[in-house]
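TEACHING EXERCISE
Course module: macromolecular assemblies
Task: Read the component lines below, then compare them to the predicted structure of the full complex.
Student: A.B.
Group: 4
Components provided:
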Amino acid sequence: MSAYFLGIDIGAAGSKAVILCGQKIVVSIVLPSGTNYATTASQVKTDALKQAGLKESDIIASAATGIGGRNAGVSSYHGVIICDARGVNLTFPSARTIIDIGGQGSQVITMDEAGRVINFNVSEICATGSARLLQVLARILQVNMDDIGPLSMKATNPSNFSTSCTVFLETEVITRISQGDKPEDILAGIHRSIADKISGMSRGVALEKDVVIIGGGALDIGLVKAIEDKLQVNALVPENPRIIAALGAAVMAQEQQQAR
Amino acid sequence: MLNEASKLYFAGIDIGSTMSKAVIVDAAGVMKAYVVGPTGAEHRRRANKVMEDVMQKACITLDEVAYIISTGYGRVNVPFADKQVTELTCHAKGVSALFPDVRTAIDIGGQDAKVLKIKNGRLTDFLTNDKCAAGTGRFLEVAAETLGLELNEMGRISLQTDTPVKINSLCTIFAQQEIIARLSEGQALPDILAGVYIAVTTRVVKLARQLKVEPPVVFTGGVAKNVGMVKAMQTVLAIPILVPEEPLITGALGAAILARDRAFQLVQDGTLQLKKKELSEAYIDFVEKNR
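Instructor-supplied answer key:
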């Protein structure tokens, strides 16, 4: 009988579940978090089991993480920093630095070859350091979230902004639109603002290679490029960057089982 | 131009990010008239308009105004001003004129917040926030928009409760989401609104505490017009708060008084002649006080 482990990450924007078997991801699920974390947690778990064709009793151990992870109805909880590190370590063993751009903030983490955290910095809860800024602007520019990255890559003259607050940026972006700035230039300018914020956060943390970018923000190729340019590194991005903390939680469940 | 004895009045124009204000004072520094209006996109036109309006209200003409100082975010766009002075200096002057003993002034405007430490009418220290919408009037505007309420209405409704809901998010964007979540949980509107005021106040008080909050504390700016904010400020600081009758005009008032001081300085330098009796007496008073 195979040994299955479940990891659940209830983030500010998205909730994720991963079922791990050995070192392989069996299934992964991503849903919007909504306002009732307990309901969402049970939903991602049910969906994951269903998609994997498993019963609850097939899961040997579970662990949760994320802002709402304590409401996930799972007895074991681990911080996002540790889960990020474990999840990245399994995905890219060569990784030593993680930049996680989440739904309401971001974090920079350094770790060793075993995925143990060495140092980290977390942003305050601020829309600008998170993927939320892009969501707000996508609405103003009437662009789909998925199209932001490719569109921004066409920028020839990135816009400059005088503020970094998302609320003030909303107003400034509207002014720029009225002045004739192109959407791609506006987006590229915004990517630079976020990259500046991330770069400020990486001060005091030695950025060793390989650098991995995860979280919802990593889905935006334009943002990844802007961070690479700002930090002068080439970054690795997992195929599904949103599920890494959930994967890490599953790894933690596995580790604790083995330690028993 | 300045040596005409009929010039008995002095003006201060404050072009803020949201509101424009103008004040006229006489030679004794006493306010004769003030006006307040939205700034809009055209700063220059607005500056002309508030100046015209305030003169009309004071029943004077431009020929009777000896000196004009502009201040605020749009102060460079007041072409008829004799001098530009920063809002911090003007604000400290205006607040001290109304409350001579003031030690701490907290000003929350449409998109910034300032904390001033004042001693004997002089600015001794300050901190500002214009980087983040949290802790500014913008936070309240976003909340009002989210709830579909008028700003004044929001203040009144919030007074109905003493059990504010806790709004955890400092960031305006996330607080907006939190307000919606609290509503969907069935929390009472007055409790949510009171929570919104506490959230804004907490952010500004955090700034103020870096400079030590000493009484008397004066609360000004457009946001101080909101009864919900005044109550929240008293609650968070746990001391009585002084609020001017018109909390928007302290910067313009300070600018007008500084315009008078500046004009008298020119008199001392010999650039301005005095003939009228009331002006002479105010001038003698000024020289003696500043000796």
